[in-house]
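Q: Sequence in, structure out?
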Amino acid sequence: MPEGRAAYHRCMNTPVSPWKDRAGPQHRPVPDAGSEDFLVHRELLFSIVYNMLGTVTDTEDVVQETWLSWAAVKDREIAHPRAYLVRIAVNHALTQMRRARRSRESYIGPWLPEPVLTEPDTPDTAIRTESVSLAMLVVLETLTPLQRAVFVLREAFAYDHAEIGAILGRSSAAVRQLAHRAKERVEARRPRYDLDRGTQRIVTERFLDAALGGDLDALMDVLAPEVVMWSDGGGKRRAALRVVEGREKVARLVAAVSAQLRTFAMRPVQLNGGPGVVLFVGGTLYAAAALDPAPGGDRVRGIYGLVNPDKLAQLAEAVRPG
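A: Exactly. Output:
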């Protein structure tokens, strides 16, 4: 392992993955001043980059690359470490985003982001509390890399136009225009609304009861007319090769899948701050699905299912059957 990367792992005293970081900072060796600055801002960097990329593995790589860039200059006096680190991370993320989009042209079936567990009793919850919903991450995939970076910094982390301009090397006017276009595109595809956790839980339970019972009429009742269902198998597990749209088609597909999952253990969870469910077979995580409630909270308008084992690997570290 190159010395820079070895230093990064020594600094973390843990694998890069936030879910594997169970020791807590009190058990880490005392870092030097440069490492301490990085550790203070690591959670922020992870959250920003994850919302830009939608994949945990790529996010970990970018955070590590940010550390390497930081370590190369940490002996110099830097007046604002947080601003400097965010700028490095965002620009590394932009490079990774462009590279990833080219590679997805050959992806088999619909591509979905990797979900993150956002339950309060799991390790490193703070890293994941700023994660936007899986449905929103899907919408953000329609933006250009620059638009997405601006939208995430502005809407999720409340950076102003001048601060974003400094991060991206753009004028405030250019950032304002990018922010306006990004917000227009996002709101056209996903108008904003808020639902409390209790309402989310109720519609999730209604959906799960209907799905587990294989009750087609009950499924039709809990699904919104415009419901869409995404299935991401990545060619490694069986999944629909196209997004399924419409209540009748989605209900029949859910009922058919449910009939094949009678031996699975199911557990409701919070994924990316919203309702979801994980499925286990033989104690091994087999699938995860995030639900997107419709405005009003009485029906489901989006189902985002992942069975690609590569995208479930990190989640499997954090969630267990129960």
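Residues 221 and 299 are 8 Å apart (CA to CA).
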